[in-house]
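TL;DR need structure tokens for one chain.
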Amino acid sequence: MWKTIALAAGVAGLAAGIALTAIQQVRVQPLIRTAEVIAEAGLAPEREKAPEPPRSDNERLVETGVANIVLGTGFALIIAAGMTLRGKGGWRAGLAWGLAGYFVVFVAPAVGLPPELPGMESAPITQRTVWWVLTAVLTGAGLALVVFAPRPAWRVAGLVLAALPHLFGAPHGATQELTATHDLADEFIAVTAWSNAVFWLLIGIIVGALYRPEKGVPPACV
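>> reply
TL;DR here they are.
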């Protein structure tokens, strides 16, 4: 079983990571580079120290690719664990798990904190990170209750959990975003949204197709 899980997660992480990296290289990176140029030009008169030398495109590509593959493999292991608990695999089940992961990790946090380009930071990174993590955790827990809980009361509690971060609101400080950078934001959000959808759906479908927990692995009592 463990070898099958590792193989499925490795293949899914590799395929999804490469696909996401390719999309980012073609569609996302040009937007980031443009925003960086605009931000550097807009902030140049205020700088008191020389900026750090920029990394080469090849360095960025390798770092991004490795990070995406590692993340994809980790997410694939989580999906495989969920399939093991439910005792059901197949690409359709994987598709459902991939959609759930996309909603929990990207959609729910992006409602309060949309993806940002350089020059558009609106709150300290620590505050945004804490809110993002709490939102993902509470959304995941809430979604699990809504889908798997046997009692309506628990399902309602799941909806409340998922809504809590948005009721309190995401951190937004005073922003000094540049107008030219802001003009790229809508395109950046759209590209980031569909590229992450491809990433998650590939992970789910591949894990589901390669890993069948119902063949020899008893489902847990969930």
